[in-house]
Amino acid sequence: MAFDLTNEEKAESPYGDEEKIKSNILTVNMGPQHPATHGVLRVEIKTDSEIVTEAIPHIGYLHRCFEKHAENIDYRGIIPFVDRMDYIGAMNMEHGWCLAVEKLLGTEVPRRAEYIRVLVAELQRVASHLMFFGTYSIDLGAFTPFLYAFQEREFILRIFEEISGARLLYNYIWIGGVWNDVTDDQLNRISSFCDNMEDEIDKYHNLVGLNKIFVERTARVGVMDKEMCYDYGLTGPILRSAGVKWDLRKDRPYSIYPEFDFDVPVGTGEQGTVGDCWDRYWVRMREMKESLKIIRQVLEGIEAGPVMGKVSKIIKPPKSEIYVRTECPRGELGYYLIADGGKIPYRVKVKSSCFTHVSALPAVAPGQMIADLVATIGSIDIVLGEVDR
Amino acid sequence: MHEDLVQIINQAVPEAKAVLNKAEVGDSSISINAETIYKVCETLKKNDKYEFNVLQVISGTDYLPEGEEGYLELAYILASFTKNHEVIIKTKLPRGTDSNLPKIDSLCGLWRAANWQERETYDMIGVEFVGHPDLRRILTSSNWEGHPLRKDYKVQEIFNGMVVNPPGKMNLGDQQFGVKSNADSLSNKKPMGL
Predict the structure, then answer these.
(1) Which of A367, B63, B141, B165 to pair with A103, CA 20 to 30 A apart?
(2) Is residue A389 situated within a structural domain?
(3) Contacts from A68-71 at CB under 8 Å and sequence distance 24+?
(4) Residue A135 placed within a domain
């Protein structure tokens, strides 16, 4: 965008009209190997000096065509594959898939297994939000909070390793229940972790969330309002930070969530406007507390019993289709499953929350500084494994 | 709810010829005429009673029974976050050919969410959305050939000068999609778990 100077400006310019001041649009590729894009996301940004005029996300670097894989393996074999979509929230991914297949089969899941599922799903939510908190601080230039967050996250991963055998990709929730029982000792340790974690969250918030620099970098930045959320189909913490009290665990309850008492935190624009980056951060921090509340209730209510229901050795759902939505740490996850009566699914479509969230990036980016774009990308908390599938 | 919706659609857009597919297991859906998709979605979005304000999914499925021509089925899943419900709208399209993909109206004018969903469907299933502002491939590379989620899809042999499946590749049989024996071989394997 070269422009000519007006006569008045020429008179004031020390270079006269010989040297015209030029301002050009510069195209910069942010990523695919960029620490602030949380994986292999490439954002093609057109910048006018420091201001972003246009941002075009390019995705697909991690594309494995999960949906095609799913058409070639049996229902149980798909569980490890769904793990690999959102590898930060693998338990929640498995939970959704198993719910979908169980609904078609009409399987009854034992009470203890339901409790354990909710327990691991909520622990995973805490771990995922801790990951967000840590990496988001790094995006904004603070390194120490990352170490704090990973210390606590490590506890959750160790517990998961004990009960499932893996630290990141569990294959723990199976169709009909969970494959391994938890011991009382593990439950006790989770209980003491909850007490500890509650104080930690307050500490993080005082340390980072109320920090002047953090507030300045995030408040009134990357505002996503309610209308935009509906237009783009944004869900999860982003929708809640825009002031909409919407949580599938409450509004379309699945598993045994209706039995638990917890709140749905929403953004109020405490530090800036409703739906800005700071609100998204604060919603996630409060969600962790609510998750801890649920975990406590699980620990109180958990009953002895089997952890695996009766499922036939070969899973053959009748010819039917189903769309199941669950609330994952990053937003709504939907499985649209079409069964043709055989051993393998006919079609599996994943409604990935991260995919929709990235698609909204071109709408918030224009007019932002480049550094604010980093803050915005960090605050929508994407996992590229789920975006690309 | 579904019967009511069918009535609403047929009243507002008679040429849609909405039919309810009632399911005993799983979710029911509503089938409509492909040409009327925009009008039907507009009706559902603006309906005061149901207010389908969010487009959740656009998904395509390829049906290719042996010896028949087959067809594509697009499923539009709409949800209402204010009235709390969802519906699956289905429509059928011919399969078309690589140079002449089936066409359907784009919903980008109704929801901006449609933009990427339609790009993905175009990429994976091969449906052209008429009126889409930026219909490019999204998940695969721009010079990729074919649409992977079609049932008769074969991976191209050479991509950008690289051999996709070299002869010495491990577990080649497991990785070649569309090979019919692959699905059959599952029956010989023992089921996982338990």
Answers:
(1) B63
(2) no
(3) A68/B148, A68/B149, A68/B153, A68/B177, A70/A345, A70/A348, A71/A344, A71/A345, A71/A346, A71/A347, A71/A348, A71/B149, A71/B177
(4) yes
Instruction: Let me know if residue A292 belongs to a domain.
Output: yes
Query: Locate tokens 């510069």: which residue?
Result: A26
Residue B60's domain comprises: 2-134
Burial class (CB in 10 A: 0-12, 13-18, 19+), B163: exposed
Q: Would the CA dihedral through A294, A299, A303, A306 be positive or negative?
A: positive
Secondary element (H or E) of residue A248: helix A248-251
Of A322, A351, A358, the CB nearest to B27: A322
DSSP single-letter state for residue B190: P
Largest Cα span, chain A? 87
Based on the structure, what is the number of domains in chain A?
A: 1
CA torsion A185→A190→A193→A197, rounded to 10°?
180
Please tell me the distance in Å from A15's CA to the nearest CA on chain B. 43
A5 confidence band (pLDDT: 50, 70, 90): low
Domain with A156 in it: 75-83+90-315
ipTM of the assembly?
A: 0.83
Q: Cβ separation of B139 and A388 shorter than 8 Å?
A: yes
Domain membership of residue A103 (yes or no) is: yes
For residue B5, give how far its alpha carbon lies from the nearest alpha carbon of chain A (Å): 18
Place of tokens 């609510």: A290
Interchain contact, A252 vs B53, CB within 8 Å: no
- pLDDT 10s digits, B25-40: 888 889 888 888 888 8
In this structure, what CATH number is given to the domain that contains residue B7? 3.30.460.80
Do the chains contact at A233 and B113, CB–CB below 8 Å? yes
Look at residue B125 and tell me if it is in a domain: yes
Q: Residue A347: which of B27, B61, B187 has the nearest Cβ?
A: B61
User: Token match 């170490």: residue?
Assistant: A147
Judge whether B33 lies within some domain: yes
Q: Residue A239, Cβ neighbours under 10 Å: how many?
A: 28
CA distance A384 to A39: 6
- Assess contact for B37 and B58: CB atoms under 8 A: no
Length of chain B: 194
Cis? peptide before A32, omega within 30° of 0 = yes
Q: Count other Cβ atoms within 10 Å, centred on residue A261.
A: 9
pTM (2 decimals)?
A: 0.86
More confident residue, A35 or B103: B103
A296: exposed, middle or buried (Cβ count in 10 Å: 0-12, 13-18, 19+): middle
Task: Report the number of distinct structural domains present in chain B.
Answer: 1
A318: chain B residues, CB-CB within 8 Å? 25
Written as one string, the DSSP assignment of A349-373 is EEE-HHHHHHHTHHHH-TT-BHHHH
The predicted-structure confidence for A312-336, as pLDDT tens digits, reads as follows 888 888 888 999 999 999 889 999 9
Q: Which tokens go with B139? A: 């998940």
